[in-house]
Amino acid sequence: MEFHAIILCGQGGKLSPLSSVRQSGIAKALLPVANKPLIGYSLEWCEKVGFPAVTIVTSSSSAPSVSQFVDSFKKTTTLKSVNILGTDAKFSGDIVLSLAPEIKSDFIVLPCDFITDISPQLLVEVHRNRDPNSLITGIYYNNNLENIEKKSLLSDYLVHTPLSNNNPRLLDAYSREAVSSARTFQLRTSMLWKHSNSIISSKILESSIYFCSGDVLKLLTTKSKYEEEQDSRELEHDNFDMDDDEVKNSELISQPKIYAVDKPWKKIVRDMARRSWKHSTPYQSVGFYLIKDENQTFIRANSLSAYMEANRWVMKQQVRLDATAPKPAATTKTAATIGNDSSVADDAEIGERTSIKKSIVGKACKLGKKCRITGCVILDGVVIGDEVHLENCIIGTKAVLETRVKLTGCNVEGTYIVPKGTQAKNETLVVLSLEGLNEDGEPIYDEEFETDSEDGESSDYSDEEFEDDYMEDGDDLFDRD
Predict the structure, then answer these.
(1) Which of these, 28, 124, 138, 260, could form a disulfide with 220 (CB 3.0-4.6 Å)?
(2) Which of 346, 333, 405 is nearest to 376 (CA)?
């Protein structure tokens, strides 16, 4: 079974001020984890299974820099085809629709920000062995890293069949915002009649990895409901002179469609799951696979806290795999000390008596004398003065920290200058500007086609199309008294 892999690279709103949502930031796909761009981990994962075609989708502004990295990656990869698509589309559903003419097989939708030790072959086999009536297999996981902030791990409410079933299914999904706004959790009565033992999960996380049958594309539409009904009647009229294969294909095309315009892919998956039970005739379902092995790790580096933990986890894996490799020893009593659990770029300059532990130092960085760096991620081009103490900090590209600065648990925007003697704890230091504000001085949240974002489309409870479908089936949207 071959797959066309689609890797979605959003701007990284939750990774501000490091990502390109800030003028000083860099493309989310290129944010380094252990001095390797995030997109590199996704591509290496694809390489393990040998997907015949990979399309990387990023914003038009980020496409040149992402393309530059991919060009260097192509020189060593065994992947046959890796292409870049720069786009100004706002939603991943629109992107997949635009790629439909190029997809000649089953396909897989991936985020660019995941890091895992789970074999892709394992997940491919899960999709191969799915329920024959399932068109999509969604991959879900539980967080097993203790230090990621809990608030960054708040997931959607997922409604699914029991995981003890042979083929668990996704039935529905609701954002926390929708549930909070409604102040109640409302379940469709049609679903409960058909799946009375359904489970509501609030802690299971979405990997944003979806294995999809090529037939999914035949069920997506950009047309209004009236236009679809007209097409369906014309197709039924023409069925008499079709052969068996054409009739089978026409039956699929004549099924109720999922309106895919201005929607992120995860909501299209949700609508596909709803479609399986909301009509009098049952339709294809969405498989629900939960990664249960506690010894396997899956990380979405889509927040600053998760990004920090991704760096730490990768470094631990490298130390474990390379435990016998000696680190360069200090040649004099005044030389810098770099721990075995740290990574320092070859061209970084480290001052005398500076200590670096459990940290990552990027390219072209300059660290002064008598500095203490513990549990930090320092991106490229950072300049740090003498006697600076940093603990659990992320320092953005080309930031400058003057002498005797002491920061704990802080995030520093790229190019920011931290004045001499500054002491701060658990703060985010950013360059003051009007960037990212609207006319009223309020923040603008522009996540574009982030697969991890909460977009502003129609409510999970008041989806107009969904309600219309119910009315036609003679069943109210909710069981109202």
Answers:
(1) 260
(2) 405
For residue 247, pLDDT over 50 is answered with no
Options 3.90.550.10, 3.40.190.10, 3.30.70.60, 3.30.70.260; CATH of 3-239+256-305: 3.90.550.10
Contacts of 142 (CB under 8 A, 6+ apart): 203, 204, 205, 290, 291, 292
Calculate what percentage of the chain has a pLDDT beyond 70.
80
CA distance 152 to 106: 32
Structure tokens at 474: 């003679």
CATH code of the domain occupying 334-429: 2.160.10.10
Q: Average the pLDDT over each of 21-25, 76-80, 270-274, 471-475 and give the range with the smallest value.
A: 471-475
| Per-residue pLDDT tens over the stretch 60-77 | 999 999 999 999 999 998
Please state the rounded mean pLDDT for residues 163-186: 89
CA dist 80 → 53, 54, 211, 445 (Å): 7, 8, 20, 37
Taking the C-alpha atoms of residue 290 and residue 192, their distance in angstroms, rounded to an integer, is: 22
Cα–Cα dist 44/296, whole Å: 17
Beta-strand runs (E) in 95-178? 106-111, 114-116, 134-141, 157-160, 169-174
Instruction: Report residue 149 as tokens.
Output: 């902030």
**How do strand 366-367 and strand 157-160 relate by DSSP bridges?**
unpaired
